Amino acid sequence: MVNGIIKKLGDDLVNNILVRFPVKSLIRLKCISKRWYTLIQSTTFIHLHLNYQTTIQHEFILFKHSIKEPNEFISILSFLSGDNDDGFNHLFPDINVTSMSSDFNATFYPLLGPCHGLIVLTDLTTIIIFNPATRNFRLIPPSPFGCSQGFHRSVEGIGFGFDSISKYYKIVRICEVFWNPWDGYPGPKETKIDVYDFSMDCWREVEHVNLPLIYWVPCAEMLYNEVVHWFATIDMSIIILCFDMCTEIFRNINIPDVCNNLTHKQYYGLVILRGCLTLISYPNPISPTDPINDKVHVWVMEEYGVSNSWILKNTIRVVPVESPLDVWKNSILLFQSKNGHLISYDINSNEEKEHILHGSPGSLSVIVYQEGLTSIPPGSQNSSKAHNF
């Protein structure tokens, strides 16, 4: 009876109905019929579903944090949903990803993305791409590029995004190769750019002009408009270095003049606030706390790529900040505090909250994402296959 009714429904009507369901329900609905299975698996439907799930009601949070044990850091991924204004609920059991963290310091190696519901987790040696909604993941082949004996190759920046021209995903790494003698200072650095192209399932080096040095801070490597963004330095000034995933060309964006100094009194982060690239300027977390003068400044770029379109939108005072993390519900800034707690600040109501989510100071990483049905891009016959976690 049910199958008979289903067969009478047109594809447009079925699409209009199914696109409203969450991923978890759609996975179950694929079992209704072969027709529904094919439809839900189709690229057209996946894109429709991604475009429909764009409101703040469809936002979820991936939360990475580390707990310090006597001899190592235990790193955990938590999959969360917002429960109105009361906090977060766990969607799935937590996952131990200790093998993806540095034993020396859990601060580095944040999450990358999201891009079409996909997220990358890396310790700069091992790289995993996964879909937190479908719980599928795949290990990316290691880069084959090394360096001569006596030299060291260091990954300074990494990004993940989609090339809408080739219709494939890419991972980009900015590497520095330098002489690393055992009894002296490192020698001159040479920049190398590695790109992992999912269409070819391999790494390749990209030619480039001289690039500025990456200025590492916890909240950068931001994907926006198919462009990855990092902070970098030129002549004692801080700029935003951009890499276009389609053209594979680098360019620079200036930050507001008032922010541009290397006195180490201010740190910087990048987030997307109400659809705009946003610069968060905050006190250096290493400096002593100054309750009177310490403020966080929120600068919004109203016209993307135009450096003189930066507008100071908010100046706020929150608990001592280790770094910004992301934006939730279009108006709630997420921070990690110096004591390792997750803090939220609503720029509309000026309400600040401390959540029960916490970890070792400096170890928190957050990505706010919309669930999607996007499949993990397959590799070649010799590559690892997608698995469930």
Automatic annotation (TrEMBL):
Name of the featured protein: S-locus F-box protein type-7
The F-box domain extends over 9-49
The record's annotation in InterPro entries points to: F-box-assoc_dom_typ1, F-box-assoc_interact_dom, F-box-like_dom_sf, F-box_dom, SCF_F-box_component
Domain of life of the organism in this record? Answer: Eukaryota
Q: Which Pfam families match?
A: F-box (PF00646), FBA_1 (PF07734)
